[in-house]
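Hey team,

Filing this mostly as a record. A colleague (T.K.) asked me to run one chain through the structure pipeline before their review meeting, and I want the input and output archived in the tracker in case anyone asks later how it was produced. No errors, nothing strange. Just documentation.

Input sequence:
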Amino acid sequence: MQNPSPQYHVGIDLGTTHTAVAYAKIGNPQDIQLFQIEQLTAPGQVEAKPLLPSARYHPAENELSEAELVFSQSGTRAVIGEAARLLGAKSKGRLVASAKSWLSHPTVDHHAKILPWGSDESIEKVSPIDASASYLRHICTVWGIRNPSAPLENQDIVITVPASFDEAARSLTLEAANRAGLHSVRLLEEPQAVCYDWLRRNSGNIHDALENIQLLLICDVGGGTTDLTLIKVEKQGQTDPKLTRIAVGDHILLGGDNIDLALAHLVESRLQSGQSRLSTADFSQLNEQCRTTKEHLLAENAPGQVTITLLGGGSKLIGGSRSAILTQDDVKRIALDGFFPLTQLDDTPDRKRSGVVEFGLPYAAEPAISKHIAAFLNLHKQAALEALQGTGTVPDAILLNGGLFRSQTITQRILDLCNAWSPKPLVLLENDYPDISVAYGAVGYAIARHDKKLKIGGGAARSYFLLIDTNVSAQAPITKSPTKYGVCVLPKGSAEGKEIILHDRRFALRTGTPVRFDLVSYSGDQPFKPGGITEISDDFHALPPLVVVFDTETAHQDTETVVQLGVTQTDLGTLKIQCIAVNDAANQETATHQTIGDNPQQRWDVEFQIRKQDTIRTPVNTELPPQFNAAIELIQAVFGTKSKQINPNAVKSLRSDLERLLGDRSLWDSSLLRALFAVLWEGHKYRRRSEHHERVWLSLIGFCLRPGFGCPLDDWRIQHLWQLYPQGIQFINSNQNWSEWWTLWRRIAGGLDVVTQERVFADIANYINPAASRQPNIAKQAKQRSYDDMVMLAAVLERLPIAKKIGLGEWLIKRLGKANESQQTWWAVGRVGARIPFYGNSHDVIPTATIEKWLDLLLVQDWKKNRQAAFAAMLLSRKSGDRVRDIDEPLSMKIIDKLKISKTPYAWLEMVEHYKKLDEKDEAQFYGEALPPGLKLIHTNSAY
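Output structure:
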């Protein structure tokens, strides 16, 4: 049954701080209205407000009665909206805020229940997607009460997103909408929505209003992002000018939230008077109060100062309270000098870490929005020059949006900044309602689509590229870091709905075998053509991998098809990628297997894997050394069908023989390693021919697949290798074979999922648990089965539940109380409790309260004699920039002092004092051995 025809155009601004909704009756486009959103404004008190705060409050069990929980949603007692803000400012660790920012967070599981960030385990938690969905679900509920004959899910809905949102964040926004019951929505970039609203408010006067304007800068500073867009204005005689969006900014997680945090840090320093910093829950409460105070002090006729009071807890609710004053000058100084300083046009953002990193979110390192605007204009200098017909590169008009610009002081500062860069004053296009213009503009866009009168062109905001293999440097040594290249699959400006097919690039794909496509995007001005190849630099933005698998329902097993890629910028505002079957004569001549289907237009959707990004960056390069074929022969001679005819000593020398051919194996790059893995895997059936065969095969296969992820199709390789785990090893009396067995799984642990890691841990737990290991047979087996390697393996299982990791750490510490325990176990303690994980989620680290207890035990060790203990202490106290994970400052100072006295490497000291990346030597020690050349850690957690 088809949905009823929509009765309304609806625009939803799903903001970081507030959600706003506007609507217009279809057929009456001139009457756009703001939807007044009923919500709890206090327990049991309901009011209709123009804005719904994008906030959830998770009350304690008996804090609110059922009568007070109006609009509560199924399965939760959470409070949504104004009352959530009110209650969150008075309570600790129960407020969920900035869920929208978490949708673009690269190192968390967006589906995991992690919010409120850093809250006590007793408090209900929700995933970033479900938090966002709950705001939309509340809108659906209230709308349905008001319009029972026109449910929201049946209307023409536009949801706005930052122009800087990548495909992953856009897809997650659509998923949140789907969870709220909104299955047919379009996405619109927020700066475009602001422009549509301005066009609506100036209809009938657009020609005159834009008479002397050629290039418009839209600067939208929201709660969580700074969104920048350039729109070219072209005259068309006496008719309205033609508007074309020619540039959008890259994602900048920087906005009003950062000002709130800076103010909270200032107030914290006044509250503490040199004492230890506030807890995460206290700081969250303080941050919420600073947000409301900022808005109060930046408003017209604001008071000179406001007193902020941080309540105590329990019986000390009143007596334990602390207060500090925040003045209007404080707010203006931090907002203006810290975030909108008068910088030069050539001043670029500082990529070093800043002091406004909090709550697990990877905020932009550079807080000066002024510098980000300058960098954006410099990146699009050529496009601006063309739009301004060679008269300059700074736009001649600006349109501001976001709650910050309710302040005339901040608005004037932006004008002063841009005017200092331009030979003539910029024209400020008025926006008297910066809180709600995005919602109004979304309705304006929906109306324009309905009437087929879109007013802003531009097509795709970015160019998209498929990373490819090349032979550009075929003679280069394998130790050289290869250059990456990409083929353009969708040029910037491509028309909406127009499919681009990559005719010159074809892929032969086999049924049941996954194929991964790595894409990057580029928002700069350089023109590209479909199929064109370009070098990929750091200016390109990596997208989540694309994966397609041909299933056996649409084809016979072991069949092959030749496909091309088809790419479309959809009218939903997302990227659509498909594999299209090619069935021409040339393919029939070269095909070696049956082609899938007879329909040349058979298509398979290629889906983004929306998940935490790999913590590894790998080069795209399949160039293999000239001696590779000889290496294959060596491996097949030992692990092939005819290997029985080969000298039995060949297996013992295989590793050294391969190094003689291919060079030092520590220099084998990822492409060579994965190619060797494929050859070794073909011989897995012959690994048990002798004790030596098994040991060498285990050693090589793990070495070639380390760290278990980061290269295309590693997840597929892991799935195949995992099939051998239940079989165990053949030669169970060989200590060395057990060592290689555990080392194999340690090397590739990053590619194992939670369930798999728990299975491995369950198999080795009894050998590590001091209570179980007292049993004679367990102790004997532990020694025979390489206990030290089991400890190292357990320590790198970062996806284990926190409770199991804590238990593991406690076991290791107890064992370290005995003199015969290896000092390597201290390394394992540090690895289990590391503040910055190697590949795991940042929300899965052990709580600081437990880590601080472990550090007290480490402090009594002699770090001069026991470097592993010192290294462990560094890992446990290493600065991450996240208050939830970082240890208390007084304890941190003790660690720093002891590191100095113990004359440990200076780099360790730096990593405890402030955030610093691991160097290659420490990275190898952290991981357990060196990573393959070309594989680099991508540091994207809260401190990077």
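Quick notes for T.K.: The mean pLDDT is 85. The two ends are 50 Å apart (CA to CA).
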